[in-house]
Specification:
The chain has about 180 residues and is mainly α. The protein contains nine helices and no strands. The chain has helices at about 10-20, 40-65, 65-80, 85-95, 100-115, 120-130, 135-150, 155-165, 170-179.
């Protein structure tokens, strides 16, 4: 568990981001992403830095039991870094860690639909689906993960565990290890 020296100053971080930074050209007055202004690579990296700070803040809010505040902070991070797959991926991981299964599933499904398909996206999509009892979808996601990288240990483990423990398909599970 991270110690106090590893934790962010939540109040100061949110105060600076919400009250001192001006997101002209990044966010509209209503808080949605401003697509009318061109953003070069430097501006894009800067927005990802803001979003990363907000993700850490949201993580701290969830750790404190402040779910609604954490969700609001996540929404701000998502708008600031609109279109950034790595930031959207991080948001999905944050949802998973906090057992927000439906939100995690939607986040990872959106990434798949955008064409962002690292193996972990499929694995985490499967975990979110499995946690909600969506067994057929979960198995499909685990299989897509393993298909994307047959040598990925985590993908193999997820599919094996799912087949062995959840579905009771021991022969199929062992076949995963043999292939």
């Amino acid at each position: 568990v991270p110690g106090a020296e590893d934790r962010i100053d939540l109040e100061r971080t949110l105060q600076v981001i919400r009250n001192e930074y001006r997101f002209r050209g990044i966010l509209r007055e209503d808080g949605t992403h401003d697509t009318s202004v061109y953003k070069d690579d430097n501006a894009t990296r800067l927005t990802q830095n803001y979003a990363a700070a907000l993700i850490q803040a949201a993580d701290e809010q969830f750790a404190r039991g402040e779910r609604e505040a954490g969700l609001e902070t996540i929404q701000l991070a998502s708008e600031i870094s609109y279109g950034s797959n790595p930031i959207q991926y991080s948001l999905g991981v944050l949802f998973l860690r906090n057992h927000e299964w439906g939100l995690a599933e939607a986040q990872f499904q959106t990434l798949v639909e955008r064409g962002y398909r690292p193996v972990a996206v499929y694995r985490y999509l499967g975990r979110a689906q499995e946690a909600q009892g969506k067994q057929d979808l979960a198995e499909g996601s685990y299989r897509r993960a393993l298909h994307a990288d047959p040598n990925d240990f985590e993908g193999m483990r997820d599919l094996f565990s799912y087949l062995w423990e959840i579905q009771g398909k021991h022969v199929e599970a062992l076949a995963v290890l043999e292939d």
